[in-house]
Request: fold
Amino acid sequence: MSVTTGWGKRASTGAAVAVLFAVMLTPAAWGADGVRVEGEDYNLYGSNDLGGYPISTEYCGSASQYFAADGIDRPGEWIMLQVMVEEAGCYDVTVAYQSYYQNAVGLRLRVPDYPEQGESLVSDFTLTEGYGFG
Amino acid sequence: MSAGGAQVCLEPGVYMFLIEHLSGDRARVDYVEFVLMDSPVERSTWGAIKNMYR
Reply:
């Protein structure tokens, strides 16, 4: 994670650490066109691993910021992430992911308790042809 | 890296969301991106869209 601040060299170490934690705990920031939530951020929020390949953060040379959440390989497994929406509206959602070469994978995005408590907003994604792990 | 896409309609706020495995083999999730669709949504239209989910 790159953090850019306007602070000069006289900023104290304690203050810098405080800012770093604040950035780490702040929901993914909103950019001009939208927001990108890194898969590996599940470490902050949780996951459900039912066995098989363990859910873990893996180095990935072709991934955004070089890391990804790996091992989501059994029905019912999930990773939890967080997004901050600043403007009401409809959003194009893209999930970028990898799988084994020529394997199809189905994933689902679920927003629990939305629009009402006990309900869920869901969208399914299907990768019809894997390109291997990079 | 491959990508799947869909649309969701949301109100302002902080949301926890899940990426769940439904079928197939091992997946490695790089990122999830939310991009506001180009056309602005009028308040009345937004209300109608919300009702579609109820």
